[in-house]
Amino acid sequence: MKDAIMQISAFSLTDEVEWLSNQYIHHGTVPENYPEDAYHIAIAVINEVDYLLSWNFKHIVRRKTRDIVRM
Fold first, then answer.
1. How many helices (H) and strands (E) are present in the chain, helices listed first?
2. Cα(25)–Cα(31) distance, rounded to whole angstroms?
3. Which sign, positive or negative, has the C-alpha torsion 39, 21, 65, 11?
4. Count of CB atoms within 10 A of residue 68's CB?
5. CB-based contact 34:42 (threshold 8 Å)
6. Cβ neighbours of 20 (radius 10 Å)
7. Which of 15, 11, 17 is nearest to 25 (CA)?
8. Which residues of 44-55 are buried (b: 16+ CB within 10 A; e: fewer)?
9. Coil, helix or strand at residue 51
């Protein structure tokens, strides 16, 4: 188990992530009062992550958000 955990990478908050997360908020993809979720999505997109899991945030998994992120 420890070996598996050691293989997990951490992603950085870059200028590109900052810009993209602001675009998601500006265009209504993510509500303005959830900037952390915009970062979460932007980091996944910039780093070409295949899957993004969401526990309880409907705005992350709604169709509008998925369609805009795919663009």
1. 5, 0
2. 6
3. negative
4. 15
5. no
6. 18
7. 17
8. bbbeeeeeeeee
9. coil
How far is the C-alpha of 64 from the C-alpha of 24, rounded, in Å? 11
Interhelix angle 35-46/15-26, nearest 10 degrees: 130
Mean pLDDT in runs of 10 for the chain (71 residues)? Answer: 77 94 92 89 90 68 66 63
- Residues making up the chain, counted from first to last: 71
Structure tokens belonging to residue 13: 């908050």
> Per residue in 36-53, pLDDT tens?
889 988 999 999 988 877
- Residue reference for tokens 């970062």: 39
Q: Which contacts (CB < 8 Å, 24+ apart) does range 40-44 have? A: 41/65, 41/69, 42/17, 42/18, 43/11, 43/13, 43/17
